[in-house]
Design goal:
This protein has 158 residues and is mainly α. The chain has 5 helices and 4 strands. It has one domain. 46% of the residues lie in helices and 9% in strands. Strand 1 and strand 2 form a beta hairpin. The mean pLDDT is 83.
Length: 158
C-alpha cells in the first residue's frame, strides 16, 4: 500500500489532580468531540493554506512553465464557464478531488486527518515529496490545542 500522509499532533493534559469528579466526567464525555473539532480545524488550516499556495513551512514550489501552460488552457469538464482560481497559484487543485477527499475521524484518544479515497491519498503522497503541503507547524498545533481546550474545558473555573 502506498504511503498515505497523515497528521499527528499531541495535546498533553494539565495536572488533573485538582479536578472534581464531575469535571473529570465532563472531560471524558467531551474529549471525542473536542478531538473532532480540532481535526476539522486542521483540515480548514490546510485548505486555507493551499488557497494561498502555501504549505506548513511556507510557499509551495512553483509549477513548471509547461504545467502552468496546461493549467491556463484548461477547460471545464461539464461545459460550464470556467471558474478556476489563478492558474499560477500553487494550490494543487486540478479537479478538486484530492482536496475534497481530505477528511478526519476520531475516537476517545485521538483524531486523524487523512484522505478518504486511496487514489487521492496516493496522489497526495506523491505531491508531498515535491511540494510538502499536508502537515501542521508548531503554530497550527497550538491553534488545534486551543480549539480542543476551549471545547473540552468550557465552563470550568480557571
Amino acid at each position: 500500500m502506498a504511503l498515505v500522509p497523515t497528521i499527528k499532533t499531541t495535546i498533553t493534559p494539565k495536572d488533573g489532580s485538582k479536578l472534581t469528579e464531575r469535571e473529570r466526567q465532563l472531560i471524558k464525555e467531551r474529549t471525542p468531540l473536542g478531538l473532532s473539532r480540532a481535526a476539522l480545524k486542521g483540515i480548514e488550516i490546510i485548505q486555507n493554506r493551499l488557497d494561498q499556495g502555501e504549505g506548513p513551512d511556507g510557499a509551495l514550489k512553483p509549477y513548471s512553465s509547461a504545467y502552468l501552460q496546461r493549467r491556463k488552457q484548461r477547460k471545464p469538464i461539464d461545459g460550464q464557464a470556467p471558474t478556476f482560481s489563478d492558474p499560477s497559484t500553487v494550490n494543487l487543485t486540478w479537479s478538486g478531488n484530492m482536496r475534497g477527499s481530505i477528511t478526519s475521524d476520531y475516537n476517545q484518544r485521538f483524531a486523524r486527518i487523512f484522505f478518504a479515497r486511496a487514489a487521492e491519498g496516493k496522489k497526495a503522497a506523491m505531491l508531498q515529496k515535491s511540494r510538502p503541503f499536508f502537515g501542521l507547524n508548531t503554530e497550527d498545533e497550538a491553534r488545534l490545542t486551543e480549539v480542543f481546550r476551549k471545547y473540552v474545558f468550557r465552563g470550568f473555573e480557571r
